[in-house]
Every structure is written in C-alpha cells, then in structure tokens.
Amino acid sequence: MSVKVYIDGREGTTGLKIYERLGAREDIELLYIPDEYRKDPVARKEYINGSDITFLCLPDAAAREAVAMAGDKVRIIDASTAHRVSPGWAYGFPELGARFRENIASGNRIAVPGCHASGFIALVYPLVKLGFMSPDFSVCATSLTGYSGGGKKMIAAYEGERGTEYDAPRMYGIGQTHKHLPEMRAVCGLDRAPVFVPIVSDYYSGMEVILPLDLACLKGVASADELRGIYKEFYAGAGLVKVKDAGAEGASGGGFAAANKLSGRDDMEIYVAGSDERAVAYALFDNLGKGASGAAVQNLNIMLGLDEKKGLITE
Predict the structure, then answer these.
(1) CB < 8 Å & 24+ apart, contacts of 49-53
(2) Where is the signal peptide (predicted)?
(3) Exposure b/e, 54-73, CB count within 10 A at least 16 = b
(4) Coil, strand or helix at 179
(5) In this predicted model, what pLDDT tens digit does every residue of 7-41 receive, in sequence order?
(6) 3-state SS class at 90
(7) Contacts for 303 with CB less than 8 Å, ≥ 6 apart
(8) Is pTM, for the whole model, over 0.90?
(9) How far apart are alpha carbons 84 and 113 in whole angstroms?
C-alpha cells in the first residue's frame, strides 16, 4: 500500500526538489492541490489531514499555521525554521546518534535542519558531545553557499539582469542574527551562539561550512590527524555523512576545496586539514540536498522504516 504524501509549498525550491525525489516512487502517492486552492486555508487543511505525511516547504508563519491545521494522525516534516528548537519536535539529523534516529523513526513532528546549520552541527556537535570542546567555547564559523539557498527571489536576482556586485561573493547576516543560530546553539549544547559568517556566491548550488580551530583550545586533540580520527569514529556507519581520509588536497585538488563539489547530491563529506597547532574542519554538501530536500526525504524514509537512501543521490 502506498503512503499518501502532500507537499505544502511544492512550488518553492525545496518543495520542487522533494517532488523530484518522490515523483517516480511507487510506494508514494503524491496528493496535488489545484493551483487555485494552494493558499486557501480550508483546502490546505483538507489535503494536510488527507495525507499520511505532509512536508511543509513554507515561510515560518505559514508553517505554524499548517501545523495548527493538522490533526494528530498526520505526520509532519517541516523544512522551515519554525520548529527546529520547539519542544516535542524531533531534530531531523539522524547521523548525530541513536537518540536522534529513534526520535525521527517514532515521531510525528520532524524539523529538517537548516542548510548552514547542517554543516555547522555536523562539525561542532561531536566535539561538544565527546568532551573535546567545552560548551563555553567561543566558536567561529564561515559558510559559503550557492545562490539557490536564497529561494526563488534570489535565484531571479542572480540569473536576471543584475549589478556587478553579484559577480563577487557577498557576506550577509552581518548583524549576527542569522535565523539558523538558535538551532546551532541548542543542538550543539553551546552556552552562546557562534560568531557566524555566511557568504553567498555566484554559482547555483553547493555549500561549504568551515570551522577553524586552534587545537590548543580543544581538550586532548594534538593534531589535525587526531581531529579527523575523532570525526571518523563518530560518523562510522553513518548513512549520508562520510569523513574523508584526505585533507584539502582531496576535496578538489591542487590545495583547493570547492563549495560546489557535491552539487546535485544528497550526502555530506567532512574533511580536516592543518597541522599540529591549527586545523580547519569543513563540510561539503548541497544546500538543496543534505541541506534541505535530501534531508527531508531521508527523514521520510526513516519514518517509514525504509532504507534511508531510497530515492536519494549519493554519487
């Protein structure tokens, strides 16, 4: 018997990518709301409650409205920021440990991690969890993303007539109020939010989250090789997160690490490069894949007791 799935916000970037991953699956019956009723609250409520699982690919306010419409029997996977630190919601990053995976499998309210937050948490959470980084550590991180991360409005700005400022990487979130900061802090167990610098650049998709570390400030980590070993042990057997043996040379070659290396894919690669004193840990993935729709479908698969990679692109 197929599972009835409704995508509320199918016309957005994330919704379209989820649709692409589910459209050909015989175990999924996608419910389609007529275009003229897409924003009609009565029709949306009917489709949400007529589904087994509903994806929310909406602005935060609309996502909260949709959850208020949903009965207890429908399971929700929310790709917005609205519920990522809300009580009663499972955080949809199963590679962080058995508790996360079990909460996804048994839950009926799942929050998909933010794109920047996915890379940041993949790098910071293991260090705090295992005691190598104290909760009061002053964390700084940078994240480079393709312009599709900004949704349809930003895509149109980059692909239409534009000023020369779009030719160069552009820092944003300069006021240190980026919407992913609350989940970065809460999930990692940090005493305060990190100093976080997101940058958007002139390419369509792909993301690189960078965590620079003075190893003297960590507990019991003597080299970049030891740091890589910590990540390899933590993510051993993880479905969509792989720690690579090589440092910077292995990411793109020639000592460069390109942020679009995993564009079009739904997995994540973690690299560590550096010396006995300083290291850079960085995560490469697609902001539309493991950073959004790929993670959402991975959560769906886990909720249904299926192979978590079903319908996903990992090579």
Answers:
(1) 49/73, 49/74, 50/4, 50/6, 51/4, 51/5, 51/6, 52/3, 52/4, 52/5, 53/3, 53/4, 53/5, 53/6, 53/77, 53/300, 53/303
(2) none
(3) bbbbbeeebbbbbbebbeee
(4) coil
(5) 999 888 999 999 999 988 999 999 999 989 888 99
(6) strand
(7) 53, 75, 77, 104, 105, 107, 110
(8) yes
(9) 7
